[in-house]
Amino acid sequence: MFPTSSSDSVSGRADEVAAGLAEVRARIAAACAAAGRDPAEVTLVAVTKTFPASDVRLLAGLGVTDVAENRDQEAGPKVAQCAGLGLTWHFVGQLQTNKARSVVSYADVVHSVDRSRLVAALSSAAARSGRRPRCLVQVALDEDEARGGIRPADVLRLADEIAGAEGLDLGGVMAVAPLGSDPRAAFTALAEIAARVRRDHPAAGVISAGMSGDLAEAIACGATHVRVGTALLGGRRAIVR
Ligand SMILES: *Cc1c(COP(=O)(O)O)cnc(C)c1O
Known about the structure:
- This is Pyridoxal phosphate homeostasis protein.
- The protein is of the alpha/beta class.
- It has 9 helices and 8 strands.
- The longest helix is centred in the N-terminal third of the chain and has 30 residues, at 6-35.
- The protein starts with 5 loop residues before the first helix and ends in an 8-residue tail after the last helix.
């Protein structure tokens, strides 16, 4: 369906986003009920990559408080366009050290911390800017290095580094379930790793897991943050890099 006028297009989009959000909230509520969890324990993080700032504004108007981006080039301008909405911004993409300074300037939570050099870069950017991002250790639950993440055996060491780094708070852990296998196995492994991190760092309670396709499994396994894009905003067009 193609909108015939710009006003149709604007209200049509608002209706689409509202419907997507209602459906995602219902799925989260159902997953919490099935798991015997309080929905207040689960934060919906809207992943708005490839979608315009106008969609972020619609989401904010509907009560969404947490928004995520995965590329610094796209996130920086979008955050600026959404100033004043009181949003918490999450960075969930693979992060090069030379982008640390820019990302620290707007991100409240960085989900993709997976190596010592990145901890050092984020720490010096935070110390310089006076900002204090929460950092999650991204855990690789398979051998697919292209998606980032540190091996489970090295998570505690990196968590200690973050906790000891000037300007950074250790928030917890994050993972993306491996493609083509039961996400429950991956999320169960992540929950065990999260519990070990929490033993040494009791305040690091975040488990960022679950996306459009597997948020119920993630919630069943203890996710505190689900990162949802497609189910909220629709399919993404191919990204030109
Ligand atoms: C894009 C993205 C998501 C959202 O994925 P959907 O399947 O669209 O919900 C979640 N996490 C990360 C790290 C992403 O890059």
